[in-house]
Amino acid sequence: MLVASQPSASGIASVHEPVGPKYGAPIFVLPRLGQGSFQAAIIDAYARRCAITGERVLPVLEAAHIKPYAEGGEHRVDNGLLLRRDLHALFDRGYLTVSPEMEVVVSKRLKDQFHNGEEYLALTGNKLLAPERLADRPSGEFLDWHNQHRFVA
Question: Where are the beta strands (DSSP E) in the chain?
Fold first, then answer.
C-alpha cells in the first residue's frame, strides 16, 4: 500500500515505498496475430499523420480499429484510422467518432461527464485526413458500426 506523506519544506509531498515485493506475479497475454502488420499498414496509408490532427510524432500515433478486432473487426486498412493516443482512447470509449461523410464528431457527453474537453469538442466538423488511395479510406460499413455501437451522442 502506498501512502502519501505531508509536504516537505519544499512543498512537495513524497510517496512512501511499499514494504515487501515491488511487483506482482507475471501475467501472460496472448498477442493479437497480425497486429504489427496492421499497425505498419495504417501508418503507411495515413502517411505517418494523425487522421484528425495531422500530428506527425510517430511515438504518439496508434493504429485504431474502427470495428474492434475482439468484436469481429478485421486487420484491414479500411477498418483502421491512425490516431494520436488521446484521440484513440476517446474513439475506443465512444466519445469521438467519424461520420460516413468523413467528418469528426465529438460527443457533448465528454463535457457533461468530465466538465472539460473544449479542445476536443472544437474538432467536431473537421474533415478526416483520409488516405490518398480510395481502397485505404475508412469503410462506410465500419464507420456506421462505430456510430451505432460505440458512439455516445
Answer: 3-4, 15-16, 61-65, 80-84, 96-98, 104-106
Which residues in 12-144 belong to E strands, given as ranges?
15-16, 61-65, 80-84, 96-98, 104-106
- Whole-number pLDDT of residue 6: 56
Q: Classify 85 as helix, strand or coil.
A: helix
Q: What is the pTM for the complete model shown?
A: 0.80
| Separation CA 139–CA 142 (nearest Å) | 5
**Which stretches of 3-84 are DSSP H helices?**
35-45
Instruction: Tell me the C-alpha distance between 94 and 40, whole Å.
Output: 24
Query: For residues 116 and 97, is the Cβ–Cβ distance under 8 A?
Result: no
Q: Kindly list the averaged pLDDT for each block of 10 residues, start to end, along the chain of length 153.
A: 55 70 72 73 97 97 96 94 98 97 96 93 97 96 97 92
Grid cell at residue 10: 519544499
